[in-house]
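User: These chains co-purify. Model them together.
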Amino acid sequence: MNWYTPVTMEELAAALAQGGESSRVIAGGTDYTIHLRQGKANPGALIYPGRIPALREIMLTEDSLRIGAMATMAELSLALAAVPEFAAIADAAGGVGSPQIRSKATLVGNLCNASPAGDMLPIAKLYDMVLEVLDGNGRLTDVSVSDFFLGPGKTALQPGQAVTAVRANRTAVTGWVSAFHKIGFRSYVSIARIGMGVLLHIDAAGVISDARLTLGAVANVPIRVYAAERLMQGKPLDRAMLEKVTAVVSRTVHDNCRPANRLYKTEAARGLCADVFAQLEKRMS
Amino acid sequence: MKTVGVTRPIHDAAGKASGNTKYAADVMLPNMAHVCLVHSAIPHGYVRAVHAETALAVPGVLGVFHCFNTTQRKYNRYRSRFSQELPLEERAFADYVRFVGDRVAAVAAVSREAAERAARLVEVEYEELPYAVGFDDALEGKNCLQGQSPTIKEFAAEFGTPPEGGCVDVESFTQFPPIHHATMEPHACVADYDPYQDQLVIYSPNQSVHGIRVVLADYLQMPYHKVRVVKATMGGSFGAKQEWFTEPVAALIAKQLCRPVKLVYSRAEAMTCAVVRGAVRASVHGKYAPNGTLRSLDVDLVLDAGAYVGNACDYIASIYGKLFRCYRMEHVRYRARVISSNTPVSGAYRGWSAPEAALFTERNLDAAAAKLGMDRIDLRLKNTLMPEDIDRKSSLPVEDIRIHEALLRGRELFFWDRLCEEDAVFNASNNRYRRGIGVACGGHGNTYYPRHGDFGEGRAFLNEDGTVQLVLTVHDHGCGTVTAMKMIAAEVLDMPDGDIYLGEGDTAVTPVDFGCFASRTTFVLGRTIHDSALALRDTILDRASELFDLPRQDLYVENAAVRSKSEPGVCISYREVAQTTMLKRRRNITAAAQFANVTNPGVTGAHFTHVEVDTWTGFTRVLDYLAVHDIGQPINPGMCIAQIQGAAQMGCGAALREELVVGKDGRCTASLSKYHLFLAPDLPNIRVELLTEGRSQEGPFGAKSIGEVSFVPSAPAVCSAVNDALGSELGVLPFTPDRILTYLAKEKEESL
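Assistant: Joint model of the two components:
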């Protein structure tokens, strides 16, 4: 097996070109190393872009957020916790695995791994993120998150391509407030059974003027719950609204998850909604 | 006392904390081969062919071993003493496989990587048989071969006479799944074979070096003195390392290759192919007097042994015995069956049958309290064994047992009565969270006695510089046995425990012993080392008297020196006594002692828990935990407390989360990402109260056991609290969020 450790974007492109069909890009390796050890993966070449300084950057400007492929969960949870419109990213990144995992694992790696339970999938969906994909010719192409996830472990990424960063439009969500919460099998170090991200814009009168809501770990790919979003628009954030949103979320979970988990996930969606909205209320005050 | 009763760190704490302690997996020997196993891919069937050609072609591969090229002899994994009569069940490599994970082949190679790669290339042809997963399949006999019965063994016993009328009947049902021991260190073994001396050496973390010797010597047809077993540092056992599967395989291959081999299990192997606590279901019918006195307990129990019977036949009999270790039993009718499904093999687990007994007994007591409208502590207080009672099954006195006191003390320290009221107020004003409190008791033993005879042998040597070396067959599980033994000897010899050396079990060096289980270590071996130290002290005094011409009856030891009551100026250091004895008498100062106990006092504990159940997500948070233990004299109190806290963590897991799920395809949970142990952030501060007044007669300084009894009441106490919070009678463990929400959904449906 060959190893590539490029230090520039040009070298990365060259490695992608040389690596061949069975090459694989590895970031934090918190999932992929396990697959390697179990013999489930047998790549012809491994490309590690962790030595390219630009890929470690998290860039927050007035109009956008750009997260380099090698930015870790720990760095994200620290960087974005105090930015209300992106606090959901910090929530999700801060809840991944253990401190050891978070200091290696990356958001982009989580997306490329494309586990239905990946915490970053509903987050990417929530912000309509754009993935910057580099190929062996050094060409960068934007791929929308809605085109990226194809199923469990499957993405639109082709051999010889690497995601170098993801972008979120900040202008569209400036002044919004966000939160993410998940239910796993325990409160810490747990893989999500349901994850939920919510992004709200509330006007001066306390009325929700715009909303987004996504669910992870329910179906094979993250789901955006438009029905719940429409329901929230023009309403105050109160108990009556929350009950209606909860009903829609529960139904969405019920209709999309596997039968074995249906009872649990449908019921537990109520607790999840309550927790996410409690967090949002805290952030608004 | 100067040393006993004062907390000390364990002997290898610094090495472990700094990552420098060497475990069996760290042992490197010249020319060592690495072994990787190939496991059965099917739950039940015959191995018809093994194709090893591609595996053998991998560079570095030294051999592929399977049922067609290794001995057909069998061994029993549970055997640990020469006198045990047990069926020989397992070959090193099965030709008839009984579960997914059964050993079918092994690859030895010069590197672990090569062995792993080659192991994936071994092709096995099977003839599949119908298989059984879970109680219902196995009870139906789905996996029975021609002429086999689903019941492997039935055990029935009755004590006392059934009560005549006037009783309240209480039925309960309890079921719990297989669980994983979750030791931090997985199973590992290094085997070295010297063909020129026909000498086999085994290094492994294990609970019985002599037990392994019995099994290996018989299996490999070698005399006992040609098999040396050395206990390696152990990163936890909880019973997982007292049955033998890595050692026979490694020994066989080392012998065939005539070179050292290392076999280290992965976590997946430790979970699926090693040993689990077997699944149990129990229907219990209790009869109670209106005042809460337990008049009769009728138990019908099924234990699923998994793929091999192992210890299961003894285990079901032992559950019966454990019923008599905590409460006064007037009448017990007990019927138990062992069945064998095609799932991971059951075996020893911390508490060895007592936690099982507690789970179903405590559930029935809680149900009785509810039915009689009594407080759960009050009901237990009516039934506990009292000092001077006897264990009605073994007829041995329980001595100064303190379970009654433990309940009273816990009620006070836990603010039980106040919490009852506070929870009622909380629950009335909250529509999402429900709080509840729980209590459970448990009892255990300190030795096999009288089920088997028990004894120990220890030796003590005085070095030229006045330090002391001890020889005793101990197996430290990581809980501080070595330190505790040194502290006992230090107390007797009145010297610093830091000036004492004690190694661990090594069949070439330490005397024949049964092993460190049955909670016998402190009670039997601790007393043995106490007596050995005492004999050494007497020899020191004898020599000092002779060599320095002092009246023997005036001599005593103090601060590692011989002093005289009649002559305050006399102060002869141990060093001086040792050196003078060597120079003038041409003798070493050594002593030996053997000790055979004739008692097995009651050792008990009561646990108290406070939980909060989130009825919207099904999660249970443990808010507070108190363990009160009747321990006699604690040798190293800090380590006793730590063991109890660890037991509470295991109990929370067993009650709320831990479950090895065997799917319809026979595949078992194989990763800790799917096996949800309780982690430190999930736990409250676990408070521990030690009751030290109930001393044992025979234990060293009045000590009693703690390692196993501490686990007995933990899961039942957590279950009790959840049922209290929900007003439920849940009996199927663990109480996962799924089970709780399923229960609540059903409850809601029924109330509509």
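Chain A is about 35% helix and 25% strand.
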